[in-house]
Amino acid sequence: MSIFKAQVCEIKNVDALHIVKFSYADTTLSMMSLELDSNIKVGTNVHLYAKTNNIALAKNLTGDLSYSNQIKAKINSIQNGELLSKVILQGDIGTFESVITKDSASRMALEAGDEIVALIKASELSISEVLDD
Predict the structure, then answer these.
(1) Strands of 126-130's sheet in order across
(2) Pair 56, 42: CB distance under 8 Å
(3) What 3-state class would DSSP assign to 54?
(4) Which of 22, 35, 78, 95 lies at a C-alpha separation of 20 to 30 Å from 48?
(5) Is the dihedral of CA 133, 96, 75, 8 positive or negative?
(6) How many CB atoms lie within 10 A of CB 64?
(7) Per-residue pLDDT band at 25 (split at 50, 70, 90)
């Protein structure tokens, strides 16, 4: 799991659907949820998480995408296994990781130091913890 610290900056809802926006440094993240704890308010600090296999990577990205969360990052390292590659990333939100197929990492010619964009759908981001600070 990749975990990000962030602060709630906006909450929109219609019926049971909630769109929550979070900020950290110069990055804004969005989450779509059918359930939202009543303790979550604008200004609440939280830890967000996304499963590492739900974080897609784009190199030389151009054009518009429907992904709400597009995080500019630099590749710190790549650990290749038989079938999968674990890509360790550094962005404004801190260090996090993505797991992609080894074939994709090879096709994209990913290397340490590459600038990429990490993509997370709003439906794949969740709150793991409400922070007291």
Answers:
(1) 27-33, 17-24, 2-14, 45-50, 126-130
(2) no
(3) helix
(4) 78
(5) negative
(6) 5
(7) confident
Taking the model in full, what pTM does it have?
0.90
Q: Are 104 and 119 in contact (CB under 8 A)?
A: no
Taking 80 as the threshold, does the pLDDT of residue 133 lie above it?
Answer: no
Q: 52 in helix, strand or coil? A: helix
Concatenating the DSSP letter of every residue in 56-108 gives EEESS--S--S-SEEEEEEEEEEEE-SSEEEEEEEETTEEEEEEEEHHHHHHT
Burial (CB count within 10 angstroms: exposed 0-12, middle 13-18, buried 19+), residue 63: exposed
- Considering only residues 4 and 118, tell me which one the structure prediction assigns the higher pLDDT: 118
Residue 63's pLDDT band (boundaries 50, 70, 90)?
confident
pLDDT on residue 111: 96
